[in-house]
Write a structure and sequence with these properties.
22% strand; 7-stranded parallel beta sheet; binds 2-succinylbenzoate; Enolase-like, domain 1; 2 domains; binds magnesium ion; 4-stranded antiparallel beta sheet; TIM Barrel; alpha/beta
Length: 361
């Protein structure tokens, strides 16, 4: 039986990026109950098509009309991926189903997911992503993150909210491991602004230009010293290969939910590794379900940079999972249990659920 539950969880603090301000996380959770096993998936979409073109309505529609039917009969994520190729795009919807199947298989084999999918370090270095805010608020948030022991601090920027805030952070906190994420806010007319950021020795600048402007990123990469990290631009092995061949990328932010799931994430890690591209695992304000998948991937040996895997207790007062992640001196560990190792707290889930039901009997 395949079920879904759409939940609306208020954020402790709004999260502001160049594409909008999130006040709640409207998460779409998938639940597969079979053979005495309960497996989970989470779609990283939100209510509106802001970060990408997919959103909750399209993802749920796709899962109901197409993807749910492609799951049968052997519950194997690899053959699901093959069949799902008949549906173009919609990697976020596909990813949620694919990842749920990986959780199912890992639980069937009685193994924690991080060990089931590859060579795991059993832990990962943790970074934090801080939304845009007035200067004083931002400096206070960075200060708190430094005190809490985060290994890399990423700050959201946009055209007009960039050099000054970076300058202030460097003045106050010295040479901390600092990066910025523009979420596609700049165009090719803004290269002069981006060149000025070189002197702040950022670990990287993430997704400065529009997602489909790989050539623009290649041109920019020649003009700046700051390493270029791509997020939205990379959705498939082909887009990664193109970025590498064009020399448009130094570092890759892999979000399994954006790239179609675990298999695709693992393939990307290998390709990045072979080409000297740094890799870290990103996040999309997931609940404990999605977060657990991310942390399992971030624990893989091939991931050598701190990612956006902060414990999501910084986003939610209460999560929909019974187990919550804790960070210890900048490290976070995958859960010990089988599969993703977290269970839904159904009692709480019902209080934040806005819609739910059966997809397949
Ligand atoms: O661009 O990395 C991003 C959150 C939502 C959408 C896009 C992004 C982000 C983050 C948050 O940076 C990272 C996290 O989940 O902690
Ligand atoms: Mg990003």
């Amino acid at each position: 039986m395949l079920l879904y539950s759409k939940v609306s969880i208020p954020l402790i603090k709004e999260f502001k990026t160049s594409f909008g301000t999130q006040k709640v996380r409207d998460a779409l959770i998938l639940i597969l109950m079979e053979d005495g096993i309960t497996a989970y998936g989470e779609v990283v979409t939100d209510e509106d098509p802001a970060y990408g073109y997919e959103y909750n309505y399209t993802a749920l529609h796709l899962i109901k009309k197409y993807l749910g039917n492609l799951v049968n009969p052997e519950r194997d994520p690899v053959s699901f991926n093959e069949r799902a190729q008949s549906i173009r795009g919609h990697e976020m919807a596909k990813a949620a189903v694919e990842m749920m199947l990986w959780d199912f298989r890992a639980k069937k084999e009685k193994k924690p997911l991080h060990a089931f999918i590859g060579e795991s370090k059993g832990k990962t270095e943790t970074g934090i992503s801080i939304g845009m805010a007035p200067i004083d608020d931002m400096l206070a948030s960075v200060g708190r993150a430094v005190d809490e022991g985060y290994r890399r601090i990423k700050v959201k920027i946009e055209r007009g909210y960039d050099e000054l805030i970076i300058k202030k952070i460097r003045e106050k906190f010295g040479d901390i491991n600092l990066s910025v994420d523009a979420n596609q806010s700049y165009t090719r007319d803004d290269f002069k602004i981006l060149e000025k950021l070189d002197k702040y020795k950022l670990a990287y600048i993430e997704q400065p230009l529009r997602k489909d402007d790989l050539v623009g990123h290649a041109v920019l990469k020649k003009k700046i010293e700051t390493p270029l990290c791509l997020d939205e631009s990379i959705v498939s092995m082909n887009s990664l290969r193109n970025a590498i061949e064009l020399d448009a990328i130094d570092i890759l932010n892999i979000k399994p939910g954006r790239v179609g799931g675990i298999s695709s994430s693992l393939e990307m890690m290998s390709m990045a590794d072979q080409n000297g591209i740094g890799v870290w695992i990103g996040g999309m304000l997931e609940t404990g379900i999605g977060r657990s998948f991310n942390i399992s991937l971030a624990s893989q040996k091939k991931v050598k940079m701190p990612g956006d895997t902060s414990p999501n207790s910084r986003y939610f007062k209460k999560d929909v999972t019974k187990e919550v992640f804790h960070m210890d001196r900048g490290f976070i560990k995958p859960m010990k249990g089988n599969g993703i190792g977290v269970e839904l707290d159904y009692q709480y889930l019902k209080t934040v659920e806005v819609e739910g039901g059966r997809i397949i009997d």
